[in-house]
């Protein structure tokens, strides 16, 4: 899939790229390239057959200058210390890019969740929650869902935390089901910010979204909702993929029907609305107006980037381009709108959920979507102002300039202590 890029090194390189457009001494920036702390823990969990299995889990707290650490928990066989560190760093800059009052964190358990029963996943999740308990809290570190976790896991973590603390504190975690204190609009929030970024990007570039052709890599929470909402803008979804392969219909297909098919059958394979099956790499290099990578990091490396035919890329996944792919696409004038803006809807509505939990007052879905739209469109405006003001080579570097300035301002206001 990739040219073996370490995502933590990618993050550090992205900060260095932006540093060239900022006038900070190197020592100020050096502390923005490393996590403040990383918890690594081994979870011993009883399986359904009575045996014990040991799982490696992590939580990285990258930077707390702008507020409590915030970020998801991922269940995946590739979870590693460096991946979690990178993802926690991207959260810092994402929260700063859209101006919400959080630092960054991320966690994960190394496992393939498809190999375990629901009761085993519950025990694994509660075991992780017990280890996390001293480190998380409504004003300390607030986890959320990520790849292969959702409302179910968030509800278990909240419940474990509340029982151990003998309290009621729904704001300790976000992405919960509505009856456990979740927010309206949270499930669709990431896809919605991808759609809003796409809408603003096409407008800024003077391109018409109506009738534009779109390919979406990864048809999970982020990708399938983005596809559905971009479809609603009048665009034509012509290709999509998941881990089982890719589907294609040059005339476009109904993104909602594809989502329903995946929900019912577990994969996109066999979806009747698409006429051809083809490979994942074919999808990434298709001649489309918009490519939305919405699977995992490092999906597009240098060699794929050389063959990308899309005019615009809006990143739904975190870190889907390697730094070398970024260089190639910048040279080839492909407009890439970065993850730290495009997928920030998830953390933004998590922020709304946390605010609602603390107020014990819940908003309508309409209010959530309106407030999200204001935050993403304001952030987009700041991005293009900065892009034009700094002459940054691409939108990612410009977005990092905005985000780093905000983190450094907060750090300087607080001072370095001890
Ligand atoms: P998910 O598990 O719901 O979906 C992931 C999708 O990617 C699945 O359809 C899977 O089959 C597919 N996939 C995996 N490997 C693939 C490959 N090699 N080629 C094509 N498809 C592949 O996860 P998600 O929550 O949608 O997250 C996807 C990305 O979006 C991740 O990078 C995640 O960090 C990021 N993200 C998610 C949220 C959120 O709120 N869910 C928020 C911000 C960022």
From TrEMBL:
<feature type="domain" description="Glutamate/phenylalanine/leucine/valine/L-tryptophan dehydrogenase C-terminal">
    <location>
        <begin position="183"/>
        <end position="415"/>
    </location>
</feature>
<dbReference type="InterPro" id="IPR014362">
    <property type="entry name" value="Glu_DH"/>
</dbReference>
<dbReference type="InterPro" id="IPR046346">
    <property type="entry name" value="Aminoacid_DH-like_N_sf"/>
</dbReference>
<dbReference type="InterPro" id="IPR033524">
    <property type="entry name" value="Glu/Leu/Phe/Val_DH_AS"/>
</dbReference>
<dbReference type="InterPro" id="IPR006096">
    <property type="entry name" value="Glu/Leu/Phe/Val/Trp_DH_C"/>
</dbReference>
<comment type="similarity">
    <text>Belongs to the Glu/Leu/Phe/Val dehydrogenases family.</text>
</comment>
<dbReference type="InterPro" id="IPR033922">
    <property type="entry name" value="NAD_bind_Glu_DH"/>
</dbReference>
<protein>
    <recommendedName>
        <fullName>Glutamate dehydrogenase</fullName>
    </recommendedName>
</protein>
<dbReference type="InterPro" id="IPR006095">
    <property type="entry name" value="Glu/Leu/Phe/Val/Trp_DH"/>
</dbReference>
<dbReference type="Pfam" id="PF02812">
    <property type="entry name" value="ELFV_dehydrog_N"/>
</dbReference>
<dbReference type="Pfam" id="PF00208">
    <property type="entry name" value="ELFV_dehydrog"/>
</dbReference>
<dbReference type="InterPro" id="IPR036291">
    <property type="entry name" value="NAD(P)-bd_dom_sf"/>
</dbReference>
<keyword id="KW-0560">Oxidoreductase</keyword>
<dbReference type="InterPro" id="IPR006097">
    <property type="entry name" value="Glu/Leu/Phe/Val/Trp_DH_dimer"/>
</dbReference>
<comment type="subunit">
    <text>Homohexamer.</text>
</comment>
């Amino acid at each position: 899939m990739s040219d073996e890029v370490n995502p933590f090194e990618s993050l550090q390189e992205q900060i260095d790229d932006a540093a060239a457009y900022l006038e900070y001494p190197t020592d100020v920036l050096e502390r923005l390239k490393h996590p403040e702390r990383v918890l690594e823990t081994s979870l011993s969990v009883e399986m359904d057959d009575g045996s014990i299995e040991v799982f490696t889990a992590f939580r990285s707290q990258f930077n707390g200058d702008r507020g409590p650490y915030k970020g998801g928990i991922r269940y995946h066989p590739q979870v590693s210390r460096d991946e979690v560190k990178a993802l926690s760093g991207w959260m810092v800059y994402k929260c700063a890019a859209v101006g919400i009052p959080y630092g960054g964190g991320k966690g994960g358990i190394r496992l393939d969740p498809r190999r375990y029963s629901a009761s085993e996943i519950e025990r694994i999740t509660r075991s992780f929650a017990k280890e996390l308990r001293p480190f998380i809290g409504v004003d300390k570190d607030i986890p959320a869902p990520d790849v292969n976790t959702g409302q179910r896991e968030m509800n278990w973590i909240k419940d474990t935390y509340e029982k151990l603390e003998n309290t009621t504190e729904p704001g300790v975690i976000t992405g919960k089901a509505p009856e456990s204190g979740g927010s309206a609009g949270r499930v669709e929030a990431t896809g919605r910010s991808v759609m809003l970024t796409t809408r603003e990007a096409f407008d800024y570039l003077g391109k018409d979204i109506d009738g534009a052709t779109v390919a979406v890599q990864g048809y999970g929470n982020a990708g399938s909702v983005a596809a559905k909402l971009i479809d609603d803008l009048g665009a034509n979804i012509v290709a999509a993929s998941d881990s089982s392969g890719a589907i294609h219909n040059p005339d476009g297909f109904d993104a909602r029907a594809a989502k329903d098919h995946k929900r019912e059958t577990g994969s996109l394979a066999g979806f009747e609305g698409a006429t051809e099956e083809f490979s994942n790499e074919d999808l990434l290099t298709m001649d489309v107006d918009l490519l939305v990578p919405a699977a995992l990091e490092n999906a597009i490396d240098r060699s794929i980037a050389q063959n990308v035919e899309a005019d615009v890329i809006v990143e739904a996944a975190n870190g889907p381009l390697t730094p070398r792919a970024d260089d190639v696409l910048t040279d080839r004038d492909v407009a890439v709108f970065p993850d730290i803006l495009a997928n920030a809807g998830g953390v933004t509505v998590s922020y709304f959920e946390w605010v609602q939990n603390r107020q014990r007052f819940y908003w309508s879905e309409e209010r959530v979507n309106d407030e999200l739209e204001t935050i993403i469109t304001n952030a987009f405006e700041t991005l293009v102002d900065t892009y034009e003001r700094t002459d940054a080579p691409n939108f990612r570097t410009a977005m990092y300039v905005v985000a780093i300035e905000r983190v450094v301002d907060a750090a300087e206001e607080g001072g370095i202590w001890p």
